[in-house]
């Protein structure tokens, strides 16, 4: 974000411009207020709050390393084979991941394998659908903000046209009017769309950890060894090394 902002400011300064030319509170109010209002119309309040909370995954919260989770799950599998499934009951209070805690609780309680699979797969689907709303909120905001920038430019031009008697101020007024367009496009392409793309990657990583947890619970009930579990979870480690497809802006806008 700092690099992108610095590049834009450097380009402005090299072209002879100044920061005062693009600092327009009115334009900020039109773009931010209009974008926020449009997003609030499209999404329920709960989705907006979830999106705000999910932003910590893109800025602050480090994702759990999959290899470390594999070793943790393999430890559960090894302990269950040596000491029995009930020995894992003491681990439940120390687990911070809600999905892992619930899955291990079901396994310890002796839930049938088929029933456990149904319960956890349904839980996976519901969590994925709810989390998918967060990047959609950012993508929708990225689609609205350029349009609101154009709205701000039109409003500015209206004000300019009402003062055609003062020809000396027309050029400056038109320049100020187009600042709204700059804010709208910049907000979408330097902040909203990139955050949506990164958030999708982070949420997919969390979903993959849950899928690994599901496979582990099945392995526990099947009585697999820790070595066999590591082999079963190895494809997830390989999947993390595959590059994520880039974010395609036209497709996002069309959604």
Explain how this protein is built:
With 255 residues, this protein is mostly helical. The chain contains 11 helices and no strands. The two termini are 25 Å apart. It has one domain. It is elongated.
Secondary-structure map:
Layout: H1 2-14, H2 25-42, H3 45-54, H4 56-59, H5 66-83, H6 98-108, H7 113-161, H8 170-177, H9 179-222, H10 226-240, H11 249-254
Helix pairs in contact: 2-7, 2-9, 3-7, 5-9, 5-10, 6-7, 6-9, 7-8, 7-9, 9-10
Shape, please? elongated
Taking the sheet with the most strands, its summary is: none
Rg is 26 Å
The share of residues in helices is over 70%
| Percent of residues in beta strands | under 5%
Instruction: Supply the helix-strand structural class.
Output: mainly alpha
The count of domains is 1
Sketch the topology as an H/E string, one letter per element.
HHHHHHHHHHH
| Low-pLDDT runs | 242-255
Q: Work out the helix count.
A: 11
Q: How would you summarize this macromolecular structure in one to three sentences?
A:
The protein is 77% helix and 0% strand. The protein contains eleven helices and no strands.
Question: Which keywords apply here?
Answer:
single chain, 255 residues, mainly alpha, 0% strand, disordered C terminus
């Amino acid at each position: 974000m700092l690099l992108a902002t610095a590049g834009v400011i450097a380009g402005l300064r090299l072209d002879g411009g100044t920061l005062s030319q693009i600092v327009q509170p009115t334009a900020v109010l039109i773009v931010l207020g209009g974008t926020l209002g449009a997003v609030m119309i499209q999404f329920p309040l709960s989705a907006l709050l979830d999106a705000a909370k999910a932003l910590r995954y893109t800025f602050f919260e480090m994702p759990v390393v999959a290899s470390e989770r594999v070793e943790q799950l393999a430890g559960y599998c090894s302990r269950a084979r040596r000491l029995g499934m009930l020995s894992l009951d003491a681990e439940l209070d120390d687990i911070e991941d809600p999905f892992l805690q619930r899955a291990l609780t079901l396994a310890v309680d002796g839930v049938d394998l088929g029933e456990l699979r149904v319960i956890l797969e349904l839980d996976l689907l519901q969590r994925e659908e709810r989390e998918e709303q967060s990047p959609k909120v950012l993508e929708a905001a990225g689609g609205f903000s350029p349009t609101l920038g154009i709205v701000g430019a039109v409003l500015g031009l209206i004000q300019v046209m009402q003062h055609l008697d003062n020809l000396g101020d027309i050029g400056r007024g038109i320049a100020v009017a187009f600042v709204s367009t700059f804010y709208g496009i910049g907000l979408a392409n330097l902040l909203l769309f990139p955050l949506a793309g990164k958030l999708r990657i982070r949420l997919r990583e969390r979903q993959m950890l849950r899928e690994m947890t599901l496979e582990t619970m099945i392995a526990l009930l099947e009585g697999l060894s820790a070595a066999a579990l590591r082999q079963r979870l190895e494809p997830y480690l390989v999947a993390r090394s595959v590059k994520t497809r880039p974010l395609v802006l036209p497709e996002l806008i069309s959604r």
